[in-house]
Write the structure tokens for this entry.
Amino acid sequence: MTVIYALYGIAALLLLAPVVALLGGLPRISDILYGSVLVVAAALCAFGLNGLLLPAQSSTVVLPLGLPWLGAHFHVDALSSFFIVVVNLGGVTASLFALGYGRHESEPRRVLPFYPAYLAGMNLVLLANDAFSFLVSWEFMSLTSWALVIAHHREPGTLRAGYVYLLMAGFGTLALLLAFGLLAGPAGHYDFDSMHNAHLTVGLAALVLVLALIGTGSKAGLVPLHVWLPLAHPAAPSHVSGLMSGVMTKVAIYGFIRIVFDLLGTPDWWWSLPILGLGGITATLGVLYALMQNDLKRVLAYSTIENIGIIFAALGLALAFKAEDMPTAAALAFTAGLFHVFNHSLFKSLLFFGAGAVLTTTNTRDIEQLGGLIHRMPQTALAFLIGCAAISALPPFNGFVSEWLVFQAILQSPQVASWGLKLIVPAVGALLALSAALAATCFVRAFGISFLGRARTAAASNAEEVDVSSLAAMYVLAALCLMAGTIPGLFIDTLAPISHALVGSMMPHQTGLEWLTIVPIAESRSSYNGLLVFVFVTLSGSIGAFAIHRLASDRLRRGPAWDCGYPDASPATQYTASGFAQPIRRVFGASIFQARETSVMPGPGSIAPATLAVSLRDPIWDSIFTPVASFVSFIADRLNILQFLTIRRYLSLVMAALVLLLLMLAIWP
Amino acid sequence: MSSLSFDIAHLLAGGLVLVSFLELYQDRLLALINIFATHAVVLALSVAWQADIQHAPHLYITALIALLFKAIAIPVALRRIVVKLSIHREIETVVGVGFTMLFGIGLVALSMVVMLRVTPGADPLAREDLAFSLSVVLLGLLMMVTRRNAVSQVIGFMSLENGLVLAATGAKGMPLVVEISIAFSVLIAFIVIGIFLFRIRERFDTVDMQALDRFRGERR
Amino acid sequence: MALIHDFALQGVQMLLALVLSPLLTGFVRKVKARLLRRQGASVLQPYRDLLRLLRKDVVLAQNASWLFRVIPYIVFAATWVAASLVPTFRSGLMFSWSADLIAIIALLGSARFFLALAGLDIGTGFGGIGSSREMMIASLAEPAMMMIMFTLALIAGSTQLSTMASFMNSSAVGLRVSLGLCLIALIIIAIAENARIPVDNPATHLELTMVHEAMVLEYSGRHLALIEFSAALKLLLYISLIACLFIPWGIAPADASPQPLLVGIATYVAKLTVLGALLAIFETVIAKMRVFRVPEFLGAALMLALLATLLRFVSRTF
């Protein structure tokens, strides 16, 4: 199927935007919009699946748009098909969720027109086959998502989030622009097909790598370029947050893979060092940040950063193996990374939808204000729990499978020859293991404090279950999480053509193996069967339950909580989110976040409450962004005089610039 | 050389590194002295094993010196000092245990890489032994850097010296003279530092090295 | 026929884990009591406790959710499945390939995840303190376990426990520095994961010092029985893991006839006895740590395991 069908779909999405903007006042317009977006996204998803399952489906279209001598090139291959599936699966579920959720929207006219445009922008990035259309679509995606971020501009903090986001997005695009400029070379071949043939020198290739890492990393949320992400993602409406966290970060990863694996040519082994290092640090720091947050959506945003770190670490491994000429290992690492891309898009959207459901009914994102929601919202609680288990890499869900594959890839790496890799890979392995364990802690805290226990506020005790379509969206995702966790072989095989195209090899065929086991290298090395584990655990649990209820006792009495004899009726006596994180804060926070606890104990006889204040500092913000910001404002102060010049002086500045450029052209060899 | 004797030599040398890590982990003085004694015992075993596989009987003397001297005499003496100064309850580290150990692992990695890279042609046993002894030396140094207490600094110094002995015995044909001279230099250092301990104690009523800095006008 | 045979052996393993685990707990308790010159309860006492608890009514807190009632079964099932995948008397059991060591550790992680949620469900202070500390311990112990496993997998060239056990049983393994480091780290982790002294005290009800017991404070009746049973299974699992990786002698190979199988069972029981006695001795001679010393203790295990992995990465001979 040619790429033109996808472009029709995108055009339909783009057309929806102005129509909705014009008809914004109609009743039930949000239902109509989300319904039609759902249909278009489903069609695009089918298009992507088709491209992925039927091999040799790459096709190119050149439209007479954009730069006159270049045109707009669009192309679809296995890699873009996969990401089209990821993006539009997110689009389908987000639209389904929004069918219900969107009715609670306070300012629909600020959200509705941008939503289809945003989805169209992401799709366009995936199809673009020249630097110009790639960057234009990239910027279009950034701007539409920015508009969605500041949709609720009256809420405190939103405008600042939007400002930081816009700044970082512009910075990232600039880096990508330069990267493409270098790739295009002096002759200016801006379409990707000619870039393939550009053979860059070692220095230039390294520069492109760094620029690509900055450009795509800033969109994906790689530390230290992540600062905008935890501000912007939570600020948007929840279905958009799900799309931004679950899907848009993946578009950034697509950009990275496209530039580094596809366009840049044969890698050197040291390319992987910064990617591996940053990946490991991002994973650990991201989850540590997440553990310190009390805002449910911000916890999720920081956990996105963690998962991006895992994906980048896997891609770094793949690059290292590719450079060291170990194609099977490279295919394993690459497939692991892509599988995690898919998995993360599933459970992160699910979790953001759950957070959105909680937000709609309680009007708060602060988990210290929640509690006991499992009694009021049992359906949401179950879906959210599945999401939490999946993201904490617990078998039999999907998060475990992709992390398992990453670990298997790490175990391949002692065979690499270079010393730098031998030292950094075990360190990255330790960081990933640490972040996996901390993620479990983080989501025990997020789920336990908000959904379990007793309601801490009236808002939490009056919560209600959300509507059917929101629940349907969550359960579709939860079912996919379980499916990808129990029959992962199917998904791994689907990814094979991509790894074949980009790292030159693919993992062994999985679906033919008995009992649907997955075997990354050889059965004697390692194998995992999610289905059997799931069946075993379910069976032994239910047999145990059945036997005990039949043979021993099935009687149940309700009584007050025991609590060592001191139950207290006040919900304030429960463990808080900050209290739950305290041991971790003591172990890791003191050095990384300079966490300081100050407690004020009123003297005897005083009835003032004792207080405990925790101060945390963001090391990245303090060490990088504050100095940069003060430097920029210093420069800006100096340049301020330029605002007050006469017209003659402005003209002389213009002329000086012109003459300077001409001079440069004259002396250029 | 059979692979088993090779493995045992490795294991003993690796054991020395492990005990060095235990020294870094332990922040109570009396336990630290016990661990140092273990360090010396492992060293003695390692040297004796080398004597056996290299058929170099003079190395047995080195092993014996290590056993009697470092594993018994010095720990006993140090223990008496600590008890006498009643500083056995003091716990003092400059940086946290976790970070020290992390840094120590970095040092071990560094010495592995350096040693294995610069000696590609050498006998594998000797080169990996050398890598281990370099790590022991560096860990001893790290111990001296991260502790404030004079006694732990002395222990750090002596475990550093153990690393040197390990290196010397790993290289074939090292004459005994050097061994004895190293052992004696440690003895002298021990005596000197021991006396210093008493002097410091008399003067300033503490064995905290920072007290000295204060009197030299450094830092504050 | 062969299928039935394999299936039966897998069943024997599952039953063996189920039958032996309370006995092991009782044995450790008995040895500890004897070391303290107490008579101690019979080694069969854990069975009696379990049966008694199973027959009692469950007293559930008023605000307990459905999750609270389901969790004991999840925890029990996950732990039991994990325990039956560790080779004990015979390697290469029928389903041993369905989960490798990473998956076994992750299954235990699932059990802990849900148990920690149960601690938060009633909304009491003790439950919270228990889960919070348990997760802190886990978030240090799990990476250490992962690094141990990396090293072992690199030595054995597999993460499949059966393959690992038979490799460790062969002469190819030799004495290795990284193995020694791993053993020490694994013992520390096993102590921490099983809530034994010095990290936690399985016998205490001094509220502020307990971790695991605080988390399960609200459970009663059959729920409590299942949780106690899972704790016993977990202890058995870790001891079997140490036994199958570091003292693998006597494990029958995959194609063994009945006689080696009996030898395998006998040596397995002997190993459990020895290691259980060692655990009891260790617990008797050491004092419990303050909670905030535990991160250092586990951090040391993490560092040792990391060192072992690093050595393994740098040179093939370590």
About this structure: Chain C touches chain B through 22 residues (CB under 8 Å). The mean pLDDT of chain C is 89. Chain C has one domain: 2-314. DSSP finds eleven helices and one strand in chain C.
